[in-house]
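Lab manual, section 2.4: Encoding a predicted structure.

Procedure: take the sequence of the chain (407 residues), apply the prediction step described in section 2.3, and record the output as structure tokens. A sample record is shown.
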Amino acid sequence: MKKLLFYFAIFIILIFLYISTLTITALIPSSMIKDNIKKSVGRIFYIDRFTDAVMLDIAYRIDSTKPLESVIKANVSSIEEGIDSFDGYSPLSALANEFSTIHDEKYDYSFDYARFWHGYLIFLRPILIILDYYPIIILESILLIILLIIFEIELYKKTNKYIALAFLLSLISIGYIFIGLNIAMFFTMVIAMIFSIILLKRANSIKDIYLFFIIDGSVTCFFNYMTFTPITLGIPLIVYYLIQDNYSIKHFVKIIFAYLISYALTWVSKWIISDLLFGTNIINDSINQMVFRTSLFVPEHDFQINPLVSVSINMIQMGIPLMMESIYLLIMLAKSHCSTKSFFKGLKTKKNLIFILIGLIPFAVYLITVNHSVIHAGSYSFRLLALTEISAFIVMYNILEKNKKDS
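Recorded output:
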């Protein structure tokens, strides 16, 4: 009971920090970021122009005279008053309309996009005072490369060159170096890398791994736009099981539960705060959106899709890297002279079972969030397969190492 109360206290502190930092950021007058947002309109990169344009639109629409209300409601352009829908709507056109001499009344409407925390605003609004979109994404890319170098060095120290190389190749295969060119994806990847680096550098000083993943889940929810979210669970989880030797399935399930419950409670707390303080009715809207995002219906195709199609579309998006890895793993197996019996025996060890389960996380996501995974397959949901790639490399490495020792 004492530990649960401690976790709850930490959670409340995090929520307070989220609200405080967002409110402080909202005090920046939009006039201070207007010029750089205007410059940004024609520079938004193609990876996911829609989401980045929405983020810039929200950043510009913040009202510094009503900082708390404005940042909680997160007002965004719409083509119909009060309707939470992006159907027939172009955020780039809406953003351009803000600064155009030819005004299009079509974008005079708006709605409250309050179901997300929009934590990215605490960095995006201040930096827009001095930089526009293009230099921002260049800085993001540089920061991601620096984090990758630190991560690889620390991983090499804690494991070996083969594991470090497996991570590097897998991250390259999902276009890691291009992730910084999209603000929405950038924050998700930064969280995954920072928490993984903390684990590698401070593993011995982390006394409560459940609290670690509770904070991970909550911070992810604060910044995330549902852009390949489980990567912030999967990569630190893989790192954790590479540097410790507790392979209990019960322990593994508890860690995942800690992350998921923290993410969910952080998300729901935003809905409750929005409804209680400003009557946004966002709880009802969020539930409807969750039902839609996990449904089998995809508007672009105007029919229901088999859940397995969600899996296949994302695997096709991964394409050549996934095929090359499969071939490489088969070559490794053939060269090792590992018997079929030894191979399957190796798969059944608790250690490898953990990594296999982590590798299955992307497929669980694709099967549960069919609508979301199909719609965003081309931009970011396929990148979750990095967890499968890394896990497959590690499992194969473990089996071959054991076979070498036994022979």
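Check your result against the sample. The longest helix spans residues 249-278.
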